[in-house]
Amino acid sequence: MRKRDDQQTKAYESHSLKRRDFLKAALATGAVGLGGAALLRFISPADTEAADWGSPNALGAKHWGLVIDVEKLNRFANFSQIIEACHAHHNVPAVNDPKTEVKWIWQDDFEHCFEELDNAYLSEDIKAQEFLVLCNHCENPSCVRVCPTQATFKRDDGIVCMDYHRCIGCRFCMTGCPYNARSLNFFDPRPYIKEIDPDYPTRTQGVVEKCTLCVERIDQGLPPYCVEASNGAIVFGDLADPESDVRQALQSGLSIRRKAELGAGPSVYYLIGGGVPAVAGGELNA
Amino acid sequence: MLEKALHGSRRYYIWLAFLGALVIVGAIAYSRQLNYGLGLTGISRDVPWGLYISQFTFLAGISVTGVMVAIPHYLHNFKAFAKVVILGEFLAVAAVIGAILFVVVDLGQPARVMNVLLYPSPWSIMFWDIVVLGAYLLVSIVIGWTALAAEKKGLPVPRWAKVLTYLSIPLAIAVQTVEAFLYAGLPGKDYWATAILAARFLSSAFASGPALLIMICMIIGKVSSFKVLEKAIDALAKIVLYAIVINVFFFLLEVFTALYSQVPAHQVSLTYLFFGYQGHGNLMPFMWAAAILAFIGIFMLAVPKLRHNKKTLVVALLAVFFCGWLDKGLGLVLGGFVPDSFGRVMEYTPTVNEVLIISGIYGIAMLVLTILYKVVIAVRRED
C-alpha cells in the first residue's frame, strides 16, 4: 500500500504540474462537471421519481385518492384518534402555537373548510360540522409547479411527496398551496415530539413538510394510518379504477371537494350523501 | 480603481463605520436566526412570506433604475444623462446584491441554496428569477465598471459594452416581470392573481428607483465636487412623475374591478388593507399613508415651480419613494395572504431580530453603493 502511494507521489511529481495550473484544471473540470450534471437534469427531470423502497406487496394505482364519508366520520370515528395515529407515526411535532404549528391532518368546521358554500341561513349544526383536512394530493399540484428544486414532486400514482433533504425552505410551496396544507419547521422539531417513532425519519429545522398519504405504507402494501384509524369513514383507493372502493363510494351520493374551482384537482373527496339514488328509469322526474 | 475607495474624508469614514455597525449587528442577528430557525421571525404557517421577501421584491424594483437612465442616454442620445448612467448601473448592482441577500436570509436551509442550480426546475418562477437577477447583476457590474474605466482613460465606451447595455434593457424588464410572476401565478391568491401585476411592478419601480437616484445625486452634490446637471435631475423628476401617475392609475384599475364586480375574492385583500377585515387592520395606517403620499408626490412633481425648487423636490421624491415602499414593500406581499384558505386572518408583525437583519442587509447594499460611488467621484475628480 505504501509502495503504491510512493509511486503515485512520484508520478505526480514527475508531471511537474504547477500548483496553479492544477488548481485551474480542477476548477475548470468541476465547473464543466457541475454544469453538465445540471444540464442533464434540466433535460430529463426523471430523477424526481422516488427511489424504489417498496416491497413486492406494494399497492399500485394510477391515481390514489381518499373519500371521506362525512356522516360516518362524525358518527363512528374519533377525530383525535385519526390525527394522533398519523402524527405519532410520522413524528409530527406537537407545537402549540397556531403561527408555527406543524400539522399533516387536522379538523376544522364546514364554515371554514367550505367557505364558498357558506350562507346566512345555513343551520348552525351544519356550520359547526367538523371535517378532516389534509393535503389534497392534487392532480395538478401548484406546490410542485412552484418548487425551485423539485423537492416536492408528484409520483406516477398521484401522491405528492416531499424530499426533506433537498428542500431549501423557501416556502414557495406554502404560498402556492391553496389549501394551507403545508407546514414549515420554524425550529428544530425534535424537542416537540413526545415519543420518536424510529420507523420514520424526523425532520430538521427549516424544511417544509406535509401529509404524504403514507407513501411508505402504501409501498409496503398497507393503507394510510388515517384510513386504518377511521372505522371505515375514510375510504382509500384508485380513483382511476371504476371498480375501486373510492369510486363505488362516490357513486353513492353527492360529494364535494375543497376549492375545486381553482383547478388544482384535489384528490380528497368529502361524501355528503343525500343525493337521489339511481332510481330505475328516472321515475321521479316523470 | 477600487483603491480609490480607501481614501476619503472624516465624514466618509464615519459613514462607513455607521454602515459597518449596521452590518455587524445584522450579522449577529442572522447568526441567531441560523441557529434557532425562522421561528425567530414574525412569519407564520399562514403568512409564510414576510418583510424579507417584500424587501427583496422592492429592491429588485429599485435595481431597474439603471435602465431608466440607460434608455434615454443610449437609445435617444440624451446627453444630459452621460454622467448619470454609471450611477444608475451601480445603483442596480447594490440593489440586486441586497435583493439576493434578502432571498438567502429568507431560506430555512440557506446552505442548500445551490440546489436551485443543481436541480434546475424550468417550471418554477423562482428558478427564472435567480437566473435573470444573476444575469442582470453581472451585466450591470460589467457595464458600469467598463464605462468608468473608459472615462478614466478619456476613451469612449467600447462597442461591446454598448451592446451589453442594449441587452440590459430587456433584462431589467424581465427582472420586474419575473418578479411579478412569482406572485401572479398562484391559485387562490386573488390579490396577486391579476394580469396587470407585472405592469404595476414596472411602473412602481420606475417611480421609486429614479426618485432614489435623484436624491442620491443631490447628496453627492453636497458632499463632493461632482455635480449632476440640473437638466438631468429635471428629466429624471419627470420620469418619476409619469411613472407614479401610471402606477396610481394601474392601482385604481384594480380597485375598480374589485369594487364594481363585488366579487368577494377580488375585494377582500383590499378591504383588509384599507378598512380592516374581521377586526384585523394592522396595515390600515400604512396603506392610507401610501395613498396620501402618492397624491402629495404627484401634485408636487406636476407643479413646475415645486419641481424646480430643490427643497420641495426632495419632499416630493421622499413621498414617492416611501409610497412605493409601503405599497410594494409591505402591502402587496402581506395583503395577499389575507384571508387564508379557511377564510381566517392571521396577521404578521416583524420581530426585532428580523428588523435588525433587514437593516444589516440594507447596510450591505448601501456599503456597496457608497464604495462604488466613491470610486466614480474619485475618478471624475482626476479629470
Q: How would you describe the overall organization of this protein?
A:
The complex is a heterodimer of chains A (286) and B (383). Chain A contains eleven helices and ten strands. By secondary structure, chain A is an alpha+beta fold. Chain A has two domains: 42 residues; 219 residues, 2-Layer Sandwich (Alpha-Beta Plaits), CATH 3.30.70. In chain A, the strands form four sheets. In chain A, strands 8-1-10-9 form a four-stranded mixed sheet. In chain A, strands 2-3 form a two-stranded antiparallel sheet. By secondary structure, chain B is mainly alpha-helical. Helices cover 74% and strands 0% of the residues of chain B. Chain B contains 14 helices and no strands. Chain B is globular, with a radius of gyration of 21 Å.
> How many structurally independent domains of chain B?
1
CATH superfamily assignment of chain B?
Formate dehydrogenase/DMSO reductase domain
Write down the oligomeric state.
heterodimer
What pair of chains forms the biggest interface?
A-B, 53 and 45 residues
Query: What is the SS-derived class of chain B?
Result: mainly alpha
Q: Describe the biggest sheet of chain B?
A: none
Query: Low-confidence parts of chain A lasting 5 or more residues at pLDDT below 50?
Result: 1-5, 7-17, 45-51, 279-286
Strand share of the residues of chain A? 5-15%
> In what order do the strands lie side by side in the largest sheet of chain A?
8-1-10-9
Give the overall pLDDT of chain B as a whole number: 93
Which radius of gyration of chain B do the C-alpha atoms yield?
Answer: 21 Å
Q: Give me the strand/helix succession of chain B.
A: HHHHHHHHHHHHHH
* SS-based class of chain A: alpha+beta
Provide the CATH topology of chain B.
Formate dehydrogenase/DMSO reductase fold
Mean pLDDT of chain A: 84
